[in-house]
Amino acid sequence: MSNTVHLSLDEVSALALRVLRHHGIIEAQVQAMARVMTAGERDQCHSHGLFRLLMCVQSLRQGKVVRDALPVAQHRSAAVVAVNAHCNFSPLAFEVGSALLIEKAHHTGIAALVINNCLHFSALWPEVEQLTQAGLCALIMTPSHACVAPAGGKLPVFGTNPIAFGWPRANGHPYVFDFATSAIARGEIDLYRRSGRTLPEGWGIDENGAPCTDAATVLQRGAMLTFGGYKGSALATMIELLAGPLLGDLTSTESLALDGRPGGAPRHGELIVAFDPRFFSGRDPATDQASAEQLLQAIRGQGARLPSERRYAARAHSIAHGVDIARALHDDILALMD
Amino acid sequence: MSNTVHLSLDEVSALALRVLRHHGIIEAQVQAMARVMTAGERDQCHSHGLFRLLMCVQSLRQGKVVRDALPVAQHRSAAVVAVNAHCNFSPLAFEVGSALLIEKAHHTGIAALVINNCLHFSALWPEVEQLTQAGLCALIMTPSHACVAPAGGKLPVFGTNPIAFGWPRANGHPYVFDFATSAIARGEIDLYRRSGRTLPEGWGIDENGAPCTDAATVLQRGAMLTFGGYKGSALATMIELLAGPLLGDLTSTESLALDGRPGGAPRHGELIVAFDPRFFSGRDPATDQASAEQLLQAIRGQGARLPSERRYAARAHSIAHGVDIARALHDDILALMD
Questions:
Q1: Of B74, B253, B291, the CB nearest to A244
Q2: What digits encode the pLDDT tens for the residues B314-323?
């Protein structure tokens, strides 16, 4: 028996739908979540694909999720809309809010979507991509659970605090990046711990703030580090402030304190900013697009990769050929319906 | 004779005013530029203080500056205002535009200021600070002259592309950062070249993209690197796109090509985004401020410094005691009026 299971993307989606329905989540949310997980699997971002069903069901079993809550949108101004997820997952809140955000951005040139009280398990790039499809540039950020120390410190204050950006391109896929402001994903450090390998320098510190390459110490008593030293640490601080207190929502420290037990999806807020280029430039849009293409080609032309290229290549392959997922994961997912 | 000259802040300002007036710049611009330079000297950011007079006069002598051009503001929407500096320096364009930006942000919750065709010599933190004084969060970015290679590449594409952020605090100075997305300032590498010292690893590459610690090679044939590897490189790309083609203005490569000769202030655009917290949070503002303070205290409480603390300490000292500037610099500045 092969240790992988081959699935078409329709089968990936169907499996996610079955599991989520089994757990009594409201249907609109089931659809939104399955779309996000299928996109992750399709782009071979396996950690944000079907694997996330395990995390989501854990959150459900921990009683953190209001599974029939519908997101409620509130117009705050001509350019700001807030959506309260009421302790359901974020994807439906984003779907409801992004339609309003796009409308606002098309009227005011710049607009913001605030998502509050959402359980968050997804990558940010599917959301960024959706906004670029409406011709918008997008900037998205969220806090998470505190596990990352500030530069020069020793105690966790920040989450892995991802930031994502998208730029629409006239022909083909948008320019998109989506990265954690931690030096590395927490899951990656956990993989080192399981396999007993030594961490590279720069990923973590011990309880005294000294550089530490022991994964267990970093995870249990020490802290992770940000990427890029004090500059990465400053960015992580900005994400805490803009996607936490600015939104009237939790910092990573507050989110961890609220949850107590780790393992599920953290609850917090999310900030989405959209820019409609038509209001920003006084030139012919074709000139601006050409200038942006020249920049991106100058990067690619010297052998450097653009951030999302690997995902787009995986996407083309998955759409044509389906995906293989680990049999052990597939078994674990089926067991979620026992 | 001492090799420094002691000046009160009024004397710093008066010196800047004299030099700028001597060169025939329009008075409103003279005032705006002197304020920015005095602030730099006051906060002991000497590279953005009176020293910048040399760069500005070089730009004037190169014929790059339209010294009597007044900035022209254009409402693009309820939330976007664009100011054309018409090839004069940026400070007056910011002063004109920021008043309109603040008004818009107070009405729409989020707003943007586009500055086009400005000669840029200043740090971004004085502008960030001014917006926090109006109770706004601010995010500012600009390209510059191309001298930084993308991660995995070998040819300069990005400028040092600074990004700055500010968060207003109820009591005391705002939280402010302002950093280049290059690993280090270009001027710093030049200091290594002058003194024949070897560069630290990670600052630059040679013409083949190999790590290089020879300052002259990095500056003349190779390229500088971004901070934070591929993540810093992605941020630098975002700054190029958002503060270049989005605004209908120049990328760092286009700015360098336009100028031809280096040495003066680069001409390009600037993007300023302002957030009014009152539209983003559904909670009592005092709760949000307390939550933000808890975050910032958690950083400081473990011995990590907040980004602008050194500047604020220098400021208090300079206001009370004045500043000392190098006599050689003082002589060079006086010679600008010969």
A1: B291
A2: 999 999 999 9
Contact call for A175 and B241, based on CB within 8 A: yes
Chain A residues close to B249, C-beta within 8 Å:
281
The lowest-confidence range among A190-194, A231-235, B270-274 is: A190-194
CATH tag, A4-182+226-282+309-335: 3.30.1370.60
Instruction: Tell how strand B162-167 and strand B137-141 pair up.
Output: antiparallel
* Chain B: closest CA distance from residue A138 (Å): 10
Give contacts of A139 with chain B, Cβ < 8 Å.
Answer: 238
Pairing mode of beta strands A110-119, A80-84:
parallel
- Nearest-Cα distance to chain B for A263, in Å, is 23
User: Which of A209, A198, A252, A202 minimizes the C-alpha distance to A229?
Assistant: A202
**B contact test, residue of A72, A74, A75, A80 with most B CBs within 10 A:** A80
Span A82-123, pLDDT tens digits: 999 999 999 999 999 999 999 999 999 999 999 999 999 999
Residue A27 is among the residues annotated as catalytic for this protein: no
Which of B137, B241, B253 lies nearest to residue A167, judging by beta carbons?
A: B241
Asked if B188 is an active-site residue, the reply is yes
Separation between Cα atoms, residue B230 and residue B235, nearest integer Å: 9
How far apart are the C-alpha atoms of B37 and B97, rounded to whole Å?
Answer: 19
Look at residues B65, B64, B62, B63 and name the one whose alpha carbon lies nearest to residue B26: B65
CA nearest A3: which of A285, A256, A324? A324
* Shortest CA gap B222–chain A (Å): 13
DSSP single-letter state for residue B122: S
Q: Is A47 a catalytic residue?
A: yes
Residue B186, pLDDT above cutoff 90: no
pLDDT more than 70, % of chain B: 99
Q: Is the pLDDT of residue B262 over 70?
A: no
Domain ranges of chain A: 4-182+226-282+309-335
